TrEMBL record:
Annotated family: Belongs to the CIBAR family.
Species per Swiss-Prot/TrEMBL record: Erpetoichthys calabaricus (Rope fish)
Membrane-spanning ranges: 223-247
GO terms of biological process kind: cell differentiation; cilium assembly; spermatogenesis
Name of the protein in question: CBY1 interacting BAR domain containing 1
Superkingdom field: Eukaryota
Database matches in CDD domains: BAR_FAM92
Membrane topology, from the record: Peripheral membrane protein
Keywords attached to this entry: Cell projection, Cilium, Cilium biogenesis/degradation, Coiled coil, Cytoplasm, Cytoskeleton, Differentiation, Flagellum, Membrane, Mitochondrion, Mitochondrion inner membrane, Nucleus, Spermatogenesis, Transit peptide, Transmembrane, Transmembrane helix
Taxon lineage: Eukaryota, Metazoa, Chordata, Craniata, Vertebrata
Coiled coil regions, renumbered to chain: 110-172
């Protein structure tokens, strides 16, 4: 085998090694970032759930129309979080997990690459041994050379076989990689579009619920409450004034009439 064929095989193996390393690096980064994106989306869902509860609690303290509007708004916001929960689950299943699986695939290819490099190394060693045998001139030179040539042939066949296996594995890996990238990114876009489309629809309904709150009716309720409080306060003032005028008179001038004239209720 010529030195040129070894050089060509080494260059090919080096290119494959660089490709596997490159995919490992970038797929690892993509997996980490998509996983972080999914976790942040899940945290946003959890915070929104707390917001829903707080809007409900606040609505319970408000006037009738505003209370109704706030509760309807909170219900729609809760519905958005249901869609966001589905978004998180689909991101984990359709994006993060497929990227995680490439760790196993890359380990398999690295093992194939290691086997090929080992076979090539044995082939080089056998070739070097044969060259040394040919340069010597012992009495049994022909037998030793024949044995070395036989070992070289076996090493060459093994190296060729492992190289072909590696090439087939890399070809399959490249096809799968391209197909998976298309699938994963398409799934990501589809999941995001589906969520935002549903969220826009629900947020539109929530917008109308808030806009439909009748301000004048609630204002009348508020005014009624204020007037009621003012009347209650006036009654208290009158009661206190009457009581003060009674106790300011001498005891002998008081009669049942003075106490009967006091309001019985506020």
């Amino acid at each position: 085998m010529s030195q040129m064929s070894f050089s060509g095989g080494d260059n090919q193996t080096k290119q494959i090694q660089e490709m596997v390393t490159n995919v490992k690096k970038h797929f690892g980064q993509l997996c980490q970032l998509f996983a972080a994106y999914t976790r942040k989306t899940a945290r946003l869902r959890d915070k929104a759930d707390l917001l829903v509860k707080e809007v409900h609690f606040y609505g319970d303290t408000e006037t009738p129309n505003l209370r109704k509007g706030l509760k309807l708004f909170a219900d729609q916001l809760a519905k958005v979080q249901d869609y966001r929960h589905a978004q998180v689950e689909r991101l984990e299943a359709k994006v993060v997990e497929p990227l995680k699986s490439y760790g196993t695939i890359l380990r398999f290819n690295r093992e194939n690459l290691k086997a090929t490099l080992s076979a090539r190394s044995r082939e080089v060693q056998q070739l070097q041994q044969l060259e040394r045998m040919r340069q010597k001139n012992p009495s049994d030179r022909q037998i030793i050379v024949s044995l070395a040539e036989s070992n070289l042939q076996r090493a060459t066949m093994n190296a060729t076989r492992t190289t072909l296996q590696l090439e087939e594995a890399i070809d399959e890996f490249e096809k799968k990689k391209i197909k998976d990238i298309k699938t994963i990114f398409t799934e990501f876009i589809t999941i995001e579009m589906a969520f935002h489309a549903k969220a826009l629809e629900v947020y539109t309904t929530a917008f109308h619920h808030i806009q439909d709150v009748e301000e004048d009716e609630d204002l009348q309720v508020s005014i009624g409450l204020i007037l009621g409080l003012l009347l209650l306060l006036a009654s208290c003032v009158f009661c206190l004034s009457s009581f003060a005028s009674i106790i300011s008179k001498p005891v002998q001038q008081l009669s049942f009439y003075h106490f009967a004239s006091l309001p019985l209720t506020l």
